[in-house]
């Protein structure tokens, strides 16, 4: 079974971080890269509901499209 570090490496190979916009927060937010990953939950946002779903599913990783604390307008230079 892969470790989190291997999952992150695979994601970075598929979706090169250099493709991100300057305002885009990409990469691992938190976690132990040595943890074995057997289940991943995919979501648009890391909100309480998706975190609860990931925990209930026994997932070791919540993979989201939007980074934590993304606020409306942030990608346009807003606050």
Would you give the CATH topology?
A: Udp-n-acetylmuramoylalanyl-d-glutamate--2,6- Diaminopimelate Ligase, Chain: A, domain 1
Q: How much is the average pLDDT? A: 88
User: CATH homologous superfamily name?
Assistant: NIF3 (NGG1p interacting factor 3)-like
Characterize the largest beta sheet: strand count, sense, and whether it forms a barrel: 2 strands, parallel
Give the proportion of residues in helices: 25-40%
**How would you spell out the order of helices and strands?**
HEHE
Strand proportion, as a percent range, falls in: 5-15%
Overview of this protein structure:
The structure is a single chain. This protein has a single domain, classed as 3-Layer(aba) Sandwich (Udp-n-acetylmuramoylalanyl-d-glutamate--2,6- Diaminopimelate Ligase, Chain: A, domain 1), CATH 3.40.1390.30. The termini are far apart. The protein is an alpha+beta fold and 79 residues long. It is 27% helix and 10% strand. It has a two-stranded parallel ribbon with strand order 1-2. Strand 1, helix 2 and strand 2 form a beta-alpha-beta unit. The longest helix is centred in the N-terminal third of the chain and has 11 residues. It is globular, with a radius of gyration of 14 Å. It has 2 helices and 2 strands; from the N terminus they run αβαβ.
Tag the structure with descriptive keywords.
79 residues, Udp-n-acetylmuramoylalanyl-d-glutamate--2,6- Diaminopimelate Ligase, Chain: A, domain 1, alpha+beta, globular
